[in-house]
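note to self: dont lose this again. the chain is below, predicted strucutre after it. 387 aa total, dont forget to put it in the shared folder this time
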Amino acid sequence: MGTSRIRDIEFMGLEFVLPADQAYGMAKAAIARRQVSLVRVITEDGTTGVGEAFGAAGVTAAYLDLLRGYFLGQDLFDNTLIRNRIFARHYHLGLENQLVTCLGAIDVAIFDAMGKVLGLPVCKLLGGRARDHLAAYASDGYFTDDPQNQLGDQLAGLKGQGFRGVKIKVGRGAAEDEARVRLCREVVGDEVLLLVDANTSYTPAQALESMVRIAPYDIHWYEEPLMPRDVAGLKWLHDRAPMPIATGEALYTVHGFRPLLDSGCLDVAMPDIAICGGLSEVRAIADLCALHGVRLSPHVWGSGVGLAAAVHMLAALPDHPHAWPQPCLLEYDVGENALRDEILQQPLALDNGLMAVPEGPGLGIELDEAALVRYAVDSDHAANWFS
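---
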């Protein structure tokens, strides 16, 4: 299949910067800078595919220099063989670094290109199109010093948008957690699923105190109460928790999830496609979750490319156990982010809280040249992508 051989792999770092007084984020810190890298695979016949990697652009670019040679001249459909070869040869470099995120971006780009070669959407390559629309929850409720953008302001802005659920940040003490959750319920009502995210701010005892305080408000899941590799702490907490525990956005590859699943200390696995190693890795994680009876709901907090990859992954998940009795939930970050809203010619938009799964081949997206140049770390290099 000569036309599906890889001729080149290109790189572009992107950055969106807010004024410092508009920074927003988690209990530990607010940020004003969003960074991702795009990786583009080009075949001998000119077919292209794009993927996204989380993290500082310079680090991802350095790893791409290491990885590129393994793929050049190889067939798109040999992707799994090439990945296994890389992991086997470079095991000394470990599995928890931007080598894996860069490899994941290549993986998504290859799925995008394979879909275009075959004339199929990526979800079909991942196992099938189980659903045409996804129910979204708003990832919102950030900590911020901006007096015009506090929790109540953020929640009020969600009214009428049809979100199935709302996730807010907690993690600054049980009393404040309860106050934030109470306010959220007052604003969004009792019918909306309420999720909270502590971003690893607590010890097991502190997390349990927080959980007990907010349990009366019907919490759908409590995300990242502890550091994600604290298997013993998560197991202790899970045995006492009055609500489901979710974690995994900072874990890499299926190997990162296995100890947690084997220990029975989480209810919802949240791999980030742009971090953990790409669609191939999340598909393996989903299979492992199914064996343990655990839901999977990807973490999404990057650009429109990463959002598209998550949409296809969720569209392909079987109902059991990932979407029953609750729907497959798509994380939709509503914080200001031009990399989500502007770099696609047709941004992936919600309609009454639902996201339509793209029907076109590959990821079903097209990049916007002007926006890429506008947010590129190196605008001259970005312009050359389209020359």
